[in-house]
Write a structure and sequence with these properties.
The chain is an alpha/beta fold and about 280 residues long. It folds into two domains: about 60 residues, no CATH class; about 190 residues, Vaccinia Virus protein VP39 (Rossmann fold, 3-Layer(aba) Sandwich). Helices cover about 40% and strands about 20% of the residues. It is built from ten helices and ten strands. The protein has a seven-stranded mixed β-sheet. A three-stranded antiparallel β-sheet has the order 3-5-4. A hairpin with a 4-residue loop joins β9 and β10. α1 packs parallel to α3 and α5 packs parallel to α9. It is globular, with a radius of gyration of 19 Å.
Length: about 280
């Protein structure tokens, strides 16, 4: 595999910012290095200059690049205990008044694993038609792939086991059909989802959201951008809003910054908005 140096990465980041207006200096260097090397290999490019030329000469490739750059969720119902807690300690405690105009935002949607998990989860609670879901994607390619329902066959086995540990009401097989090399998830689950194409500054974030699920994504960004994203999510959430992060992600703040969130369940990385 081609190995990128710091100078190569900075040149590619500079080109993207200049040509497309995306600032990828917000990504942690090690994360950016790994993803760019993956893209070079996936597109059979001989060296960093090949990627540089492709980005320079083929503007249509940039959307594919965005799709390949973002890291897809590995499986459905990942960390089943998180979903059990949300069912038993969060949604089961909401009444009709609290569910009125209830908005959920997934800021980092790539393969649709988390999105389809959420919609299956809500369908079992008879809430899918009562809430509004927003899913932000970096590229049109990601949106098209999610809408197709296609999902790698090799990932479905662990997803089925996750669902069993979640202790759902049905079988995960009820929500997809199997083909030779993939499965096709039930796209009726996402028919009312509003997809938002946006960069990683989230200038088009929805307003007055009650629940944000952004798991295992903060780790790809620099500490400075992580702090910026926390402020964006704090502003996006309603007064009684809730934030769900990845199990290994912690809320870190600058010593000069106000505390924006209080833990609801520290073990599951679930937080409530603090009014500041």
């Amino acid at each position: 595999m081609v190995e990128l140096g710091i100078v190569d990465i900075r040149e590619i980041v500079r080109l993207i910012n200049s040509n497309y207006g995306y600032d990828f200096s917000i990504f942690a260097l090690t994360s950016m290095k790994y993803r760019l090397e993956h893209i070079i290999a996936k597109n059979n490019l001989p060296n960093p200059e090949g990627l540089f030329r492709k980005l320079s000469d083929q503007p249509d490739f940039f959307d594919v690049f965005l799709n390949q750059l973002t890291v897809p969720s590995t499986e459905m119902f990942r960390d089943p205990s998180v979903w059990r807690w949300l069912r038993e300690n969060y949604f089961n405690n909401l009444d009709d008044r609290q569910l009125s105009n209830f908005k959920i935002w997934l800021p980092y949607t790539v393969s649709g694993g988390e999105l389809f998990t959420l919609t299956v989860f809500l369908k079992e609670l008879n809430l899918l038609d009562k809430v509004k879901i927003y899913a932000t994607c970096a590229s049109d390619t990601s949106i098209e792939q999610i809408r197709s329902g296609e999902y790698p066959l090799k990932k479905i086995e662990v997803s089925v086991e996750n669902y069993k540990r979640f202790q759902g009401d049905a079988e995960l097989t009820d929500f997809y059909s199997e083909e030779k090399y993939s499965v096709i998830r039930d796209t009726s689950l996402i028919k009312n989802v509003e997809f938002i194409k946006d960069d990683f500054n989230y200038n088009n974030a929805p307003k007055n959201v009650r629940l944000i699920i952004m798991r295992n994504a903060l780790i790809y960004f620099t500490p400075a951008h992580q702090e910026k994203l926390m402020k964006i999510m704090h502003e996006t959430l309603s007064a009684n809003g809730t934030l769900v992060l990845g199990l290994k992600e912690l809320i870190r703040t600058n010593s000069n910054s106000p505390v924006l969130f209080d833990p609801l369940n520290q073990n599951e990385s679930i937080y409530k908005k603090r009014l500041v």
